[in-house]
Design brief:
Blueprint: E1 4-6, E2 18-22, H1 23-32, E3 40-44, E4 49-58, E5 62-72, E6 79-85, H2 91-101, E7 106-110, H3 122-141, E8 149-150, H4 156-162, E9 167-171, E10 177-178, E11 189-194, H5 202-210, E12 214-217, H6 225-239
Parallel strand pairs: 1-3, 6-7, 6-11, 7-8, 9-11, 9-12, 10-12
Antiparallel strand pairs: 2-5, 3-4, 4-5
Helix pairs in contact: 2-3, 2-6, 4-5
């Protein structure tokens, strides 16, 4: 089963109970995937449960399925969250896509002082919805049980306040210590912070460091804002035993 389809948000998956696909999921399964009656596919609820299901009714607007069996996948501990600064073009979106494929658990858009891209007015709602859609599509491609949640955009002050509870890892090419040497502590979750193209303002860095953030570098070269997050996540997947 090379494809994964998600049931509508809030729908539960239970063996022996009918399930459904609607909207784009139904259209893709029926017309692109050419799903036939009696064929089995992989479905999920985006909240940890994957299921094998057999098609009992197929249409472009709705696919009805019989759930054969289910498996629940708990969230990894600690979770890894991506704090991604808004960037121009599609660089921040590329980071969201790749980090989702690599297993990021939550995504926080960061309205950094030097972010070229700004979310104001209608852009706030549209931006979050766009990132959430990218995360959902990347989750399907990588057969993920969990779809990462995209929060509303946060300011540097709001992110610094998270430092009192979670571990903030601030990626900085000029940092004295390497991320590869990071030793996980007992804080609930690890937040990887990727700044904008112009870097982080000194006042922002001071605020974050005072909140307990660790200043860490990835290597001797400077990565784009689209590639720094995925590179950091790959290292953390190894050090946290997720891979």
């Amino acid at each position: 089963m090379a494809h994964l389809y998600y049931v509508p948000s809030g729908d539960s998956l239970e063996a022996g109970v009918p399930a459904r696909l609607v909207g784009d999921e139904a259209r893709h399964a029926a017309t692109v995937g050419r799903l036939g009656i009696g064929e089995e596919i992989l479905i999920g609820d985006g909240a940890g449960t994957l299921a094998t299901a057999r098609a009992t009714g197929v249409g472009p607007k709705e696919v009805v399925l019989e759930v054969v069996d289910t498996t629940f996948h708990p969230r990894p501990k600690p979770e890894v969250w991506l704090v991604q600064a808004l960037a121009k073009g599609d660089r921040d979106e590329l980071a969201i896509q790749t980090c989702t494929e690599l297993g990021v658990d939550r995504i926080i858009p960061w309205q950094a002082a030097r972010s070229v891209s700004l979310w104001k007015g209608d852009k706030v709602i549209k931006g979050v919805a766009r990132w959430q859609k990218i995360a959902a599509e990347a989750s399907k491609q990588s057969l993920r049980p969990w779809i990462p949640t995209v929060d509303e955009a946060m300011t540097t002050q709001e992110i610094a306040e998270l430092g009192g509870v979670h571990q903030l890892l601030l990626l900085d090419p000029g940092a004295p210590d390497a991320l590869s040497a990071y030793i996980p502590d007992r804080k609930p979750n690890v937040l990887v912070m990727v700044g904008p193209e112009g870097g982080i303002e000194p006042s922002e860095k001071e605020l974050l460091m005072n909140s307990g953030a660790l200043d860490l570098r990835l290597g001797s070269t400077v990565l784009r804002t689209s590639s720094a997050g995925p590179a950091a996540l790959a290292l953390l997947n190894s050090s946290l035993g997720r891979w």
